[in-house]
Amino acid sequence: MRNGFRLLVFVLAFVTVRAESIEIVERVAGEKDSGLLLPFIENGGVEWRSAAPLWRGESLDVSAELRGATSRDFLLFQVIVHDAVQQNDFHGKNLWRGDTLYLSLDARNDSSMERRMDGSYDSDDAVFVFGLGSMGPEFQYVKSGRSADQPRAEVLRSIVRDEAMKTTVYDVAIPWSELSSAYGQSSALGLALCVAHKDRDGKDLSWGRITAGKTEPWLLNRVALQVADSDFVTIAPRCVRLINEPVSEVVVAVQSVSDARIVARFGNKKIIIDSPAGSARRYAIRIPAEMVSMKAHQLQVKVVSDSLKENAMFDITTPALIVEKFQERVTRLRNSADHSLLTEHLDSTLAVILAAAERLPLERVEHPERVRELVNAIEVISSKLPKENMEWAEFQNRGLPLVFAFVSERDRTLQFYALQFPYNWNPERAYPLTVYLHGAGPDNPVDNLLTAFDNSHQDTLFTEDLIDPEDVPPSHRGFVLAPWARGNSYYRHAGEDDVWQSIAHVLERFEVDRDRLYMTGFSMGCHGAWALAARTPDLWAGINLASGFFSRSDTRFDFFDENVRGLPLVNWVGEMDQRMLDGAIPFQKRMEILGVNSQLEVTPDLPHTYPYENFQTNLGKLMPFRRPDLSEFSFVADTDRHIGRNGIRLKVDLPIDIHALPQFICRLDGNTVRIDSKNTDGLEIVPHELGLSGSITINWNGEKVYEGSDETVVLGEPLIPVRYRWVRPF
Asked: Do 40-225 and 229-316 fold alike per CATH?
């Protein structure tokens, strides 16, 4: 009932206009530039390759020429780049860092600045990047109006480098359907090109409003599209995912020697219009968003003439409908789950989605992009969920994480974390636990939630590959915990509390070897890993810091370096990540001067990223270590939340003087505890946390101050309660 109420509120919030029925209106052809034309060819024709270039451009270091054509199935382009050096040492999402070609398209030539206010693209808009990278020819979307799918493989026909001629030839065939359009749907095309010149200090070469992926579809070059004289009919969706749009639209393009009839059905509504014989005409079938529901969301379109016959069906979606369908699907999968943890995983995922949906009516005016982010997240998560049954074996074989939601003890808000289980997990066995803190990114919980289902937008965690039982990667030999921690919180305040509460939740529910806890993080998470682990060094067996040595990172402070003496550190950075490398080198030197067991790995030819393989290698270096049993250790407190370690806590007065931080050094000699402290007038000692029992002796700053039983001892002024509960997992 509660979830149903949430969904009802969400649905009602999106109803803004009343409408009674669908409509069909003739669509006006867009503007086109004279002199710019993509000729029509039959599929397979090659004559367009020898025609005059549509565009030619040159700069000091590079020149290029573009040819193009349209067919019934494809938009065809050939780009010849003349460049003395073709160099791209990257691939995948880093392909853009080398010599590449960007192609920006507005298939219907209908984008407007107003439609871009939510930061989105229409379904017919896309920016592709093509490159001859380190893994050979490849391409991907840079931006697209589609959901998170990758483009179809046939988009890239070839990229050929001729070193003798110093040319690189790009051959591209983009299916009309890839752009949610079709042949004849528009009289013009928005088109722009950028030759990104990265191998030397040369300038990029651009045609139209595009520079290395930053593009404005409504300001692209307008190019006319030639249509053949023969009869045709195409039916294509212009807008069927109503994210922030009030009306859906499907376009019918028809050219016939005889009259054609267009019939549209939606729910119990039907509308008919006749198109007169003659040259190409275009009609928009429009359906208001408030008419879309679980009972009516499919549009059927039929076009008939003496020489033509075409049928098509489209699902019209709204955010409310997408949430409702997702909730229905999760409920169905929940009933099929063969393990209680899978049920909790589904319940937690749904809770996070519903909480995000509940906020949208309040956010969408100033942040319409949040609606699109939620819809994209739901669609991607749905694509990753099993079609029929939730089976525990599938998670074990791939090491996929589960999502666990919880209510924050700090402010009673809904928070969550992802937890990857050990391969072939045995609930009776204790496993190591690695806490992974993510880097900065979109400050939106559903974006982080996606990481637990889809690894395509980040590197380090949660591969979907089958695990080889003969060679289990280090991260799959134990638990890996990845908290959301309020997004870009820098793991401070409530974000820090969420980390501790997540750890406590895992320790309470699962068998964990508490002497094998490892802290790691990338970028902002590297800062967080150091900020938390260096202030709680008695909890950890080792620390891995990756590419987070920047000007705002706590790694720049040296006053609590002594805290980590006795812990192994594995530090990592990519060679091309210059800003982080500049901070990592002095950090490593500080550790070496102190005698900390620390190593810095610099991986060649890598920018600001943390590949899965490097994470596995670094974690593998830490996992042999256990939490050290130290007879001598020190601690410096710079906050009133982290006031000690190993059972010794300092009295911390506010405001804290950064030049006179409370600190102590402890030496254990049998059952004798020797503590030398500065800048504090109070201590609390818990002998059991020091591993001591029976009669103990405490010397403080050279004087014997206690001899007796192993109960908690308070020396000097009593400790002051902190502003927020100091949460530690144990």
From this structure: yes
Tell me the C-alpha distance between 50 and 65, whole Å: 12
Give the span between the Cα atoms of 342 and 336, in whole angstroms. 10
pLDDT of residue 668: 97
User: Where does residue 538 fall: left (phi above 0), alpha (psi -120 to 50 degrees), or beta otherwise?
Assistant: alpha
State both tokens at 143.
């931006």
Identify the helix (H) or strand (E) that includes residue 674. Answer: strand 672-678
The alpha-helical segments, DSSP class H, found in 419-575 are 445-451, 494-509, 524-533
Residues 6+ apart with CB under 8 A from 51: 39, 67
- For residue 655, whether the previous peptide bond is cis, meaning omega lies within 30 degrees of 0, is yes
Which CATH number does the domain 40-225 belong to among 3.30.390.50, 3.40.50.720, 2.60.40.1190, 2.60.40.10? 2.60.40.1190
Q: Distances from the Cα of 383 to the Cαs of 31, 145, 379, in angstroms?
A: 38, 18, 6
- Quick one: how far is CA 109 from the chain centroid? 30
Long-range Cβ contacts of 59-68 (<8 Å, 24+ apart): 59/197, 59/202, 59/203, 59/205, 60/202, 60/203, 61/197, 61/200, 61/202, 61/203, 62/195, 62/197, 62/202, 62/205, 63/205, 64/193, 64/195, 64/205, 66/193, 66/207, 68/38, 68/191, 68/223
The SS3 call for residue 146 is: coil
Please choose, from the candidates 527, 346, 544, 545, the residue with its C-alpha nearest in 3D space to the C-alpha of residue 453.
Answer: 346
**What's the pLDDT tens digit per position in 700-721?**
999 999 999 999 999 999 887 6
8 Å CB contact between 671 and 695: yes
Q: Where are the alpha helices (DSSP H) in 157-252?
A: none
User: What's the pLDDT at 29?
Assistant: 58
225 near 70, Cβ under 8 Å?
A: yes
- The H-or-E segment that residue 492 falls in is none
Specify the length of the chain in residues. Answer: 730
Judge whether 446 and 352 are in contact, CB under 8 Å. Answer: yes
Gap between the Cα atoms of 385 and 332, Å rounded: 12
Query: Rounded to an integer, what distance in angstroms lies between the CA atom of residue 598 and that of residue 286?
Result: 64
Q: Is 557 helix (H, G, I), strand (E, B) or coil?
A: coil
Is 12 exposed, middle or buried (CB count within 10 Å of its CB: 0-12, 13-18, 19+)? exposed
Dihedrals phi, psi of 454, to nearest 5 degrees: -140, 120
Read off the DSSP letter of residue 427: T
**Both structure tokens of 267:** 């729910």
CATH architecture, domain defined by 229-316? Sandwich (2.60)
pLDDT at 60: 82
CB atoms within 10 A of CB 412: 7
Please state the domain extents for the chain: 1-15+318-390, 40-225, 229-316, 397-622, 632-716
pLDDT at 525: 97
Which position has the token pair 């050979």? 136
What sign results for the dihedral spanned by CA atoms 399, 400, 406, 410? Answer: positive
Return averaged pLDDT per consecutive 10 residues of the chain, 730 residues in all: 39 39 80 76 89 92 95 96 92 88 90 53 87 94 68 89 97 94 93 84 78 63 91 94 91 96 95 94 95 95 95 95 95 95 97 93 82 88 91 84 95 96 95 96 88 76 82 94 96 95 96 98 97 97 97 94 96 96 97 96 92 94 96 94 94 92 97 97 95 96 96 91 54
Fold of 397-622: Rossmann fold (3.40.50)
CA–CA gap between residue 558 and residue 554 (Å, rounded): 9
Asked if 186 and 29 touch (Cβ cutoff 8 Å), the reply is yes
The DSSP result for 298-345, as a single string, is EEEEEEE-SS-EEEEEEE-B-HHHHHHHHHHHHHHHHHH-SSHHHHHH
The pTM for the full model equals 0.87
pLDDT in the model for residue 334? 95
